[in-house]
Specification:
By secondary structure, the protein is an alpha+beta fold. The chain contains 10 helices and 15 strands. The longest helix has 19 residues.
C-alpha cells in the first residue's frame, strides 16, 4: 500500500520504523536515515514541502520510503514544481530505502512519483550512487532519463588508518611545522554531546568565516539554523551517528570536520579551517587524522562525499561516478510549457530533460553498479 506523507507530524510518527528499515538496507547511507534526513530538512530546508512516499506490505509493515519534497525552480517563463530530495542539497547522496525481501516496493514507489495526484511538474533525483535503488529503478523504466552528474571519492580503511597514498611524508612534515608554530595544537575526536557542545558552535562560526568572502554563502550564515544544527548534531553524537573531529588549542578551534557514522563507515560532511592558517593545510591534516582514527577502531571505509575537489587527490582514493535522473511531470502545467516552447521555438522542457549537467544520457557512459561499500 502506497501512502504519501505531507506533514511533519506524519514524518515524526514513522521515524523509528524508517530508521530501522534504513539500518537493514545494505545500500543505504546516513543520508537515507530518518534521523539525519529529517534533521537536515528541518534545519536547512524547511521551505521544502514534504512529499514522502511510503510503501507497506499486507501486514502493515513499512517496506519502502522515498524522502522527497516539492521545490520551485524557474524554467522558461514560469516557475515549476520539482519533486526532488526532501533535504535539498544538504545530504551527500539521495536514494529510496527498500526492504530486501520486498523489491516490488521500489517499483510501486517510483510509479507513485509519476501519478497525476503528485503536485509536481517534473522529477529530478540527483546524487545517485550507481548501485542505488533509484539508479536501478531509473534504468528499468522508460519514464526516466539518467546521466552522469559528478564523482565521489572513497578510501578503504585498515587498522593502520587507511591508504594514505603517496603524500604521507608531506602530511607528517606539515603537522610538525604546525606544532612548531602552535605548540599547544592537538587533534581530538569529540563523540559525545557533552564533548561536542562547547565546540560545535565555534565550528559553525569558523565555517561562516571560511566562506564569507566566497560567492557561495556558508550554510551556517543563518544564525537560527546554526544554533539548531549545533544542538541537533550534539544529540547525534550521543546516538553514535556523528562525530566532530577537531584541531584545537585550549582556547581556539583551528579546524573542524563533521562526520556521520553508518554501518562501519564514516562519511565526511562539512569541514572548516581557520583562513589565517591556510599554509598549514589544516583540512588535509584533519582528514588524515580522521581516517587513521576510524581505521584503528575497525571502520571499513571513509567516504569523502561528492565532488572533484583537488585536495581529495592527496590520498589513493577510489572514484565512482554519481548519477542524476529526470522525468517529465505528469501534470498539465508541464504539457502547456512544452506546447508553448514548441510554438515559440524555445525548447525549455527538452533542454531540462536531455542534458544532465551537460552530459547527455548514454548507456555506454554510465558507471556500472558496484558492490555495496557496507558489505564485509
Amino acid at each position: 500500500m502506497i501512502k504519501v506523507l505531507t506533514t511533519a507530524p506524519e514524518l515524526r510518527a514513522i521515524a523509528s520504523e524508517w530508521d530501522e528499515l534504513a539500518d537493514r538496507d545494505p545500500e543505504s547511507s546516513p543520508y537515507q536515515s530518518a534521523t539525519i534526513t529529517l534533521g537536515l530538512w528541518r534545519i536547512f530546508a524547511p521551505h521544502v514541502r514534504p512529499q514522502v512516499i511510503t510503501a507497506r506490505n499486507g501486514d502493515g509493515r513499512l517496506v519502502g520510503v522515498l524522502p522527497t519534497g516539492i521545490h520551485r525552480r524557474r524554467l522558461g517563463p514560469i516557475r515549476i514544481r520539482v519533486l526532488g530530495p526532501l533535504d535539498l542539497w544538504y545530504g551527500s547522496y539521495f536514494d529510496a530505502v527498500v526492504a530486501a525481501e520486498h523489491p516490488e516496493a521500489l517499483r510501486e514507489i517510483m510509479a507513485a512519483t509519476r501519478r497525476r495526484g503528485v503536485p509536481a511538474d517534473t522529477v529530478a533525483f540527483p546524487h545517485l550512487r550507481p548501485g542505488s535503488h533509484l539508479a536501478q529503478g531509473a534504468r528499468d523504466t522508460r519514464d526516466y532519463l539518467i546521466g552522469v552528474e559528478s564523482i565521489r571519492h572513497e578510501i578503504p580503511l585498515a587498522a593502520t588508518g587507511g591508504d594514505a597514498g603517496r603524500n604521507t611524508r608531506d602530511i607528517r612534515r606539515t603537522w610538525r611545522r604546525l606544532l612548531e608554530a602552535v605548540p599547544t595544537a592537538r587533534y581530538e575526536v569529540l563523540a559525545t554531546a557533552a564533548a561536542v557542545e562547547p565546540w560545535i558552535r565555534r565550528f559553525a562560526d569558523l565555517h561562516r568565516r571560511r566562506w564569507e568572502a566566497k560567492p557561495t554563502a556558508s550554510i551556517f550564515a543563518d544564525h537560527v539554523a546554526s544554533r539548531a544544527f549545533s544542538s541537533w548534531f550534539a544529540r547525534l553524537a550521543d546516538q553514535d551517528l556523528a562525530e566532530l573531529h577537531v584541531i584545537r588549542t585550549d582556547e581556539a578551534l583551528l579546524a573542524g570536520l563533521c562526520v556521520f557514522r553508518w554501518q562501519g563507515c564514516i562519511y565526511g560532511w562539512r569541514q572548516a579551517a581557520d583562513p589565517a592558517m591556510a599554509k598549514h593545510g589544516l583540512g588535509i591534516q584533519l582528514t588524515q587524522q580522521a581516517m587513521a582514527t576510524a581505521g584503528a577502531r575497525g571502520d571499513r571505509l571513509y567516504d569523502m562525499g561528492r565532488g572533484a575537489e583537488s585536495y581529495k587527490d592527496t590520498w589513493s582514493a577510489r572514484e565512482t561516478g554519481l548519477l542524476r535522473s529526470r522525468a517529465p511531470g505528469p501534470g498539465i502545467r508541464w504539457s502547456l510549457l512544452e506546447f508553448a516552447g514548441q510554438a515559440l521555438g524555445r525548447p525549455w522542457t527538452r533542454r531540462w530533460l536531455q542534458g544532465v549537467d551537460g552530459v547527455k544520457p548514454a548507456a555506454a557512459t554510465l558507471p556500472t553498479a558496484s558492490a555495496s561499500p557496507h558489505a564485509p
